[in-house]
Amino acid sequence: MWRTFLCLGIMLSNALIASETGGLRLVSDLNPGAEGSSLSGFFVWNGRAWFKAATRQGDKTVWALHASDGSTTGTRRIKDFPPQEHGSIFDNPFVYENRLYFQGPNAALGKGSRIWVTDGTEAGTRPISEDGKDVCDEFKPFLIGERLVLSLHGDYNGHGLVALNLHTGVTETLAVPFDGWEDYTDGAMLKGAMLKLDLDGRVFWSIDGTRKGLKKLVLPGMPVFENDDGMNQFIAMPNGVLMLPNGQRKPPLDLWHTDGKSVVKLASWWPDNPFSELWFGRLGDLGLVLAYDRTRRCGLWSSDGTVEGSRNILDSDPYHDASFSFQPGRQSQPLIAGNKLFFEMDDGKHGLELWVSDGTKSGTHLVIDIALGNEDAGIFKLFPMADGRVLFQRKNANSGTDVWVSDGTEDGCRRLAALERATDVVAALQGMILLVSDHDQFGQELHALDIPQPIVPAAKSK
């Protein structure tokens, strides 16, 4: 009987939500009542969104793994995680051989993190390691064959390095701890091995996932850094690895490349502040850098890993009269969707608006001037869709959120919904998007918005 009343309550809740927020419907009230569920860590796999959520059980907060296909009946609690003081719950997820792996809690110590695997069932959601030697720091999922390279932490003076076999669950120690090694697992793949720079800024290591395959490399052309500075941003390319330095004290800021035999400088720019934020990513076979440059105000550079193929493809303000230039703290994070880079920029004429680039000068342009004139569009988040389009959110005049979609052209830029509440897009599924939204009745919970077909164009703001 109680299940019947629960279903009727959820149906009534959905109707109330849809009538109040322009098509936004409640998926599930995971933490019944007005208190929200603290949903986060969304990852799409096998047509469902996987995420962690917190609920109150008496005086305790319990975190659990959930999965949702965007429907009430298709949203379920997979497994409760053991309580611990600090550490990961559901972080850095990745898929290997149709199973989902992630960084989860370490129940044995009550702190720290281990590698978990799930097949979508409660029984099949567990730590993978049989020997418990996979307690790890934050890591990037560096897979070399069936081996996952991990940087251990715990009671080490420094850090140890292990490889966790995803087939057997057994770990192999690759290196004993070293003082000064802060994180082994920051690097990029180069010719089937992981390339990692030691924190002294002078020595690279090649890691193939075995103890014998751990090799120190000496690469001619490596710049000399002060203190413990070195290369800290890496992008794997077909012909090697692109690199940017950390803590370079004096301009210019340089882009470097290595093929595993030597290191070459490709390009330079001149920020007013050597610690200026920038964006660094890969689009196809090109590396892109979006950064502030005092001679260009804001610049977009592309590189194919060669000196000849590294160039500036966009000056945001060639006349130096823009009121504002690229500042990641104020703008949304640039995003790769499909074969395009979407980002915000002020060109001195249109205000801060959405731009797109395919990595060429001719293919880099303003998408649409949403807020006409030199007013900013107010975009605060970009989100990728599986079909190569991008979703973006902007605040509206009603203190709510407008959700837009764009394919990189003005005609293909449409408003999906004008919502009365502040929302956060968290996942894109087939025919719908999932959002976390606040509501007076339910608190912060999971909602869905169906994508209408065809999408009706929306008028520009005045």
TrEMBL record:
Keyword line: Signal
Signal peptide stretch: 1-18
Top-rank taxon, per record: Bacteria
Signal as UniProt keyword: yes
Name of the protein described by the UniProt record: ELWxxDGT repeat protein
Organism: Prosthecobacter vanneervenii
